[in-house]
Amino acid sequence: MGKRVVFLKQLPSGLLLVTGPFKVNGVPLRRVNQSYVIGTSTKVDISGVNVEKFDDKYFKKEAKKKKTKTEGEFFESEKEEKKTLPQEKKDDQKAVDGALIKAIEAVPDLKAYLGARFSLRSGMKPHELVF
Amino acid sequence: MPFKRYVEIGRVALVNYGKDYGKLVVIVDVVDQNRALVDSPDMVRGQMNFKRLTLTDIKIDIPRIPKKKSLIAAMDAADVKNKWENSSWGRKLIVQKRRASLNDFDRFKVMLAKIKRGCTIRQELAKLKKQSV
């Protein structure tokens, strides 16, 4: 459902770089398309966050290794591959979120706000709502 | 059943349709059976159909078609702005405008405040019930 996240910057491909922060609502550093986002007028201070190193190449999927399959191996090989997140990405997440969470906690109720979900209730008219 | 608010020179009315929706205006003259000449400190004096107006309780003392300066002076003397903002009708409109302008974060804070208020009310009620048992 409608997760509330912090927008960091727009990447060269046009996608938006956002983060939850991860500890607050489980959203990692990720790209998101503008069309699936509603921008609000609420702002957080991100001057303490360095987002220079993130670009589209950072998020590119790793090329899959090609495997030749025999009949016997066909059923087994699916179980063995496990994708773990590289430690480097976990460190990047911690670095970005560290400064960000301090800025978020400076504003009362903002952490709870980001942890909550957005949904349309009865009586809410999107074309009349101010975000 | 008799009428209490009359169309007269000096009657303050609320515009309920059109470009000037929501504004308070003063009736300064009557054009014919359906239209009034209407004026306000922040608009050009012009005619308006009575159907676009809702009369209020407020009336000010002015001669027919006063100059803008004397209209503003009469409105200040009768304290129209404060009378309106303290009336229950005026207060309701102010609250409606405020609610419409809340952004998503504000709506979240309002929700938290409502829950907190309900919680303290229920606690007090429980205390009182316990006492009266």
Keywords:
heterodimer; A: alpha+beta; three-stranded antiparallel beta sheet; two-stranded antiparallel ribbon; 5 strands; globular; B: 133 residues; alpha+beta; 4 helices; 60S_ribosomal_eL6 (chain A); ribonucleoprotein (chain A); ribosomal protein (chain A); Rib_uL2_dom2 (chain A)
Summarize the structure.
The complex is a heterodimer of chains A (131) and B (133). Chain A is α+β, with helices and mostly antiparallel strands and 131 residues long. Chain A contains four helices and five strands.
- Overall strand count of chain A: 5
Report the oligomer. Answer: heterodimer
* C-alpha-based Rg of chain A, rounded: 19 Å
Biggest interface, which chains?
A: A-B, 14 and 9 residues
Strand order of the largest sheet of chain B: 4-3-2-1-5
Q: Specify the structural class of chain B.
A: alpha+beta
Task: Characterize the main sheet of chain B.
Answer: 5 strands, antiparallel
Radius of gyration of chain B, in angstroms, nearest whole number: 22 Å
Percentage of β-strand residues of chain A? 5-15%
Low-confidence stretches of chain B: none
Order of helices and strands of chain A: EEEHEHHHE
Run of helices and strands of chain B: EEEEEHHHH
Which of globular, elongated, flat, extended, rod-shaped describes the shape of chain A? globular
- What summary fits the major beta sheet of chain A? 3 strands, antiparallel
Unreliable sequence segments of chain A: none
Q: What count of helical segments of chain A does DSSP give?
A: 4
- Biggest sheet strand line-up of chain A: 2-3-4
Q: What class, by secondary structure content of chain A? A: alpha+beta
Q: How are the SSEs placed, and which strands pair?
A:
The complex is a heterodimer of chains A (131) and B (133).
Chain A: E1 2-3, E2 6-10, E3 16-19, H1 22-25, E4 30-32, H2 71-80, H3 87-105, H4 110-115, E5 117-118
Antiparallel strand pairs in A: 1-5, 2-3, 3-4
Chain B: E1 11-15, E2 24-30, E3 35-40, E4 43-49, E5 53-59, H1 68-78, H2 80-86, H3 88-100, H4 104-132
Antiparallel strand pairs in B: 1-2, 1-5, 2-3, 3-4
